[in-house]
Amino acid sequence: MHDIPLSCSLPVLLIFLYMTFRRLSSSRMKLPPGPRPVLFLGNALQIPSTSPQFTFTKWLEEYVFQQPMLVLNTLESARDLLHKRSSIYSDRPKFVLLDELMGWHNASTIVQYGPRFRRHRRFIQQTFNQVAINELRAIQEKQISYLLQDIIDKPEQTDDHLQRFSAGIIMKVTYGADVKSINDPLVQIAHRAELLTIESGTPSATLVDYIPALKYLPTWARKAALVKEAVDAMFNVPYEIVKSQMISGVVSPCMTSRLMATCSPAGVNSLSSEDEEDIKRVVGTMHAVFSQTQCVLSTFILAMVLHPQVFNKAQAEMNGVIAIDRLPNFEDRDSLPYLESVIKEVCRWNVPVPLGLPHRLMDDDVYRDYHIPKGTTVVSNYFSSEVQLPAILQNCSQPQLFRPERYLEDPHLLDPREVIFGFGRRRCPGRHFADRNVWLVAASLVCSTIIGKAKDDAGREITPEARFLDGFVRHPAEFPYSIKFRPEKMSALSNWNDALET
Known about the structure:
Layout: H1 6-28, H2 52-59, E1 69-72, H3 75-83, H4 86-89, H5 96-101, H6 107-111, H7 115-128, H8 137-153, H9 158-175, H10 185-199, H11 207-210, H12 218-248, H13 255-263, H14 273-306, H15 308-321, H16 337-349, E2 359-360, E3 365-367, E4 370-372, E5 377-380, H17 405-409, H18 431-448, E6 449-452, E7 482-485, H19 490-501
């Protein structure tokens, strides 16, 4: 038998002692059951990089939770932990993906729960609280006018028009920029950054976050550099435009200019580097949040194409409330309960972000006799389409069916909009504005257009497949459809534009 050098045996001994200590320690506390971890790698290799919510839902058949990631598949558990115990569940994990792809300085410090996060929250609340969004109504209505006119002129490019609408609203609110074309340079910069970020992977399911050394692989490093360049441009280019306008004294009122003035009353040249970084990140992040608006609107159109009886019923309701010479406004919302049910079902049928954004437990906790260790990553599983066992928004009859009537039949059924924006202190502060955008577009389309199936060269209707793209945001795959503006609504659009001018 050969002697083993001490330099080789010592690491092995230390690893053995560490693993033994872990087993002894965990035996004293009841951890939530979960898939058997792999030595050294834990459960990292068991989490797919695409559509991980399907795997999480399957695990619920055998396990309540998974360690070190806690997957919440029920509304009760999500509310109990992320809302009722938000004081210790409001942190964000430190993700290599965030640090490397986003290219932020001190990225984890910025998103973790603490004074800087609370400052960012105040920044957003100043613009998007329930009272402040009433001041943004004129912007929303003007963008609706542009959208409907674009559909009249080029109905075959409605996908682009919806993208321009989503980008146009947020660009006007955040930077004071008037966007009238999808080819606007600022829109293209933001779209490229959002697309690359979405394609980079789903938070809490990216292998590099579990094995940080993978970031040094050439392929991953090149991808990170590409996304970093795009995101930096999205944050910096429009910010510098507003800054230059502030210096020259000619600037449109917007979120960025207000924050600059608040942080530095003496002038923008006196802004600290931390102030500038905070403003850039807060304002730039709003683009990622409101890009989900486009996802919901695309899903709405897909659902109307696949379920013409739903569209016809919503339009019949609309015709009974809205006169032929006008378009719907926010005051009409309570009078359109079926449309409200349709929008709820759209948000449930295809949740824009199926796993939400991950939380991080800030201290040890006990839930249902299970010990949850400090540092555990916690995600809410909203959606699953591959198994019968429901996730949070599949806890209803026939969850795979698109059926808005379920909300009229059961008034107590969970409204998806109560959960898809998050829980507790991490709930999206822009949710009220985003909800109003979706409602106004959906109502305007139902009122003024005919949405249906496209036809092939032989005149036969094409039934699209309900297929969705994997990624952080679950966009519908491209699908054919027909949309036509109702000629009898031309005077209504003209009256709308006249009212906006006055």
